[in-house]
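hiii so um. not sure if this is the right channel but i have a protein structure encoded as tokens and i wanna go backwards to a sequence. like what aa goes where. can anyone help
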């Protein structure tokens, strides 16, 4: 019996965004857990210099599949995906259009709300408009709000406050990360996240309950990447009916945006049982403490098996 040929995997990590450090850890983990009996892994680090493409083009063209361990703008927003499409190299996670759409929180919320799903009322402020009419925006704000950059993840630049001066400072902080800032009404409740696996045949993985610790009001950067700042309960401590509803909504959003591979949708559930969609991640974290691998483990997949599944989905024909 002929020995099965190993797949050549171009593992792409690093990137130019503020989420670069997380990407480096994700890349290291993926490299460690990709099955050496099945794959030959070529590591490709995306740097701020465009020369990284020329230096690695031969590795890319020889690869059977690219494994993306990139997070944030310049890696998760469709740019690298578009390049790989031109090179006709299959890759893990969502395609160019879904990636670009999901990175834009405001556009995603608009699309999701058009399907009758709940999103928090919000304003989108562009930097070139804010200086001219900042007082107008601030005057419209009532009560507690969440201020965040529109197109960056990992909770960078997020502020939660009801104080007018703090709101102004929060907007200015968010503008340091993006030239579009979202100000949305604060929704009180419990936070949950739901991974969805698949391209056409979709499978919702177990719901994860997120409980920030040490006084944090939300799932901030520290809570996402340092276990001492959070508790994660998988499966979530909720009724089967609520878990099923969250999974159904997550599957619907994954399909609506045209996501592939795996996505992770975040929700707030109020005390009255209302489900608010927050945002979706098309390349969720792949660190040892990341949420999706934990949920996959509860579903019966080891980390290596989860990576195998992502590669299988990348190679799946349309």
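sure thing!! here u go:
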């Amino acid at each position: 019996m002929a020995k099965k040929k190993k797949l050549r995997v171009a593992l792409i990590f690093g990137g130019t965004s503020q989420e670069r450090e997380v990407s480096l850890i994700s890349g290291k983990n993926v490299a460690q857990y990709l099955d050496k009996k099945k794959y030959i892994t070529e590591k490709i680090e995306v740097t701020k210099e465009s020369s990284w493409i020329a230096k690695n083009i031969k590795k890319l063209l020889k690869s059977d599949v690219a494994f993306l361990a990139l997070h944030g703008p310049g890696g998760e927003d469709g740019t690298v995906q578009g390049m790989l499409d031109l090179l006709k190299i299959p890759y893990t996670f969502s395609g160019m259009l879904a990636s670009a759409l999901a990175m834009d929180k405001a556009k995603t919320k608009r699309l999701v709300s058009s399907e009758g799903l709940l999103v928090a009322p919000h304003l989108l402020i562009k930097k070139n408009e804010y200086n001219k009419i900042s007082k107008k925006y601030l005057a419209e704000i009532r009560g507690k709000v969440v201020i965040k950059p529109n197109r960056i993840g990992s909770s960078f630049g997020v502020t939660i406050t009801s104080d007018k001066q703090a709101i102004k400072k929060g907007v200015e902080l968010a503008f340091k990360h993006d030239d579009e800032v979202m100000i949305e009404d604060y929704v009180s409740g419990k936070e949950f996240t739901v991974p969805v696996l698949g391209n056409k045949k979709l499978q919702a993985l177990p719901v994860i309950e997120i409980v920030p610790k040490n006084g944090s009001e939300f799932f901030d950067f520290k809570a996402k990447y340092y276990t001492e700042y959070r508790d994660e309960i998988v499966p979530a401590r909720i009724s089967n009916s609520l878990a099923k509803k969250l999974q159904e909504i997550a599957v619907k959003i994954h399909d609506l945006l045209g996501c592939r591979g795996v996505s992770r949708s975040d929700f707030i559930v109020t005390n009255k049982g209302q489900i608010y969609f927050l945002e979706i991640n098309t390349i969720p974290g792949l660190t040892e403490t990341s949420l999706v691998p934990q949920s996959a483990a509860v579903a019966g997949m080891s980390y290596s098996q989860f990576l195998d599944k992502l590669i299988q989905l990348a190679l799946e024909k349309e």
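oh and The chain has three domains: 7-92, 102-118+188-315, 122-185.
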